[in-house]
Amino acid sequence: MTLIDKTKPVMISGATGYVAGWIVKKLLDEGLTVHAPVRNPNNPEKLKYLNDLAANAPGTIKYFKADLLEQGSYKEAMEGCELVFHTASPFIMNVKDAQKDLVDPALKGTMNVLNTVNETESVKRVVLTSSCVAIIGDAKDNLHLPNTTADESIWNTTSSVTHQPYNYSKTVAEQEAWEINRKQDRWDLVTINPSFVLGPGINPRSTSESFQIIKQMGDGSMKMGAPGLHIGMVDVRDLAEAHFNAGFLPNANGRNIISNVSLTVLEMANLLRDKFGNEYPLPKKELPKFMVWLLGPLQGLSRKMVSKNFGYKWLVDNSKSIKELEMNYRPAKETLNDFFQQMVDTNVFVKK
């Protein structure tokens, strides 16, 4: 059981990111002091949305200069903190050099933050943003599981630097975190393993992969049909709640799948149809798998990825999050409609 003193500052890496933005909002709204290590604390444009949050909340935010791959650069920001959130990790699918662009930042960044935790006496708990991809590499992997559904005991063993490198980067980073945690007994580790994160951003012009898939539904990219992908999804606002509870509930522990429902891309589009179907070219059917397999490489999808994911159900058990992290997931329709509306408001789409 770990009790965190809310009068002490809380450090969060990757504070300008899509997920972290909502965690920062929650912390500030609760009146906490947030220590935000960022690459350039003197860039008002980059920090604009966080500053706006702080201006309208009882909490305060302080910036520190740090870099994910610079050893020891988190030391100053972590000073005096009992709780550390480590959310910083690249989320990009098309990379030239997977080892350099994905695996190294995820793995070395985690080692850098946790080595500093080991040197900072005040820290009692670390909440690490991992992912469901550290549990399931490909949807086809579910076929070997009881009820074809994954829980927190499962680890991704099928991804590599050459196949699903993003999934691999999250897996090795989380495994390393548990390894570092096991070698000491001062601080405990709680990992958050979200599925695909959707919902409006604090920064309405984010470039995360989450934005791309919804953008393609509304900009005509999918008007020939939606890819037959089955995806677990969670609202970014619910995910922030999960992080907060993982930080402050004394009995939070271990790995925690944070996922609301699993839907196909077409089912997601159908949830948008009532409100947006008349004005935007939402997909009305699913593309045949062979066509995606054939054309996938042109879209940056390897044929192996298409073979092992398209047409398979992706299922996880979220019962631990409901029972232990007190999660109460909002409806998927609300998530998708709020997200799409934000894109409409920021002129992402041109109406048909």
UniProtKB/TrEMBL annotation:
Species assigned in the record: Flammeovirga agarivorans
Classification via Pfam families: Epimerase
Q: Which residues form the NAD-dependent epimerase/dehydratase domain?
A: 10-244
User: Which one of the record's GO molecular function terms can you name?
Assistant: oxidoreductase activity, acting on the CH-OH group of donors, NAD or NADP as acceptor
Keyword match Oxidoreductase: yes
Protein name stated in the entry: NAD-dependent epimerase/dehydratase family protein
Q: Which PANTHER family match?
A: NAD DEPENDENT EPIMERASE/DEHYDRATASE (PTHR10366), STEROL-4-ALPHA-CARBOXYLATE 3-DEHYDROGENASE, DECARBOXYLATING (PTHR10366:SF564)
InterPro entries the record matches: Epimerase_deHydtase, NAD(P)-bd_dom_sf, NAD(P)_dehydrat-like
Family of this protein: Belongs to the NAD(P)-dependent epimerase/dehydratase family. Dihydroflavonol-4-reductase subfamily.
For this UniProt record, the keywords arranged alphabetically read as follows: Oxidoreductase
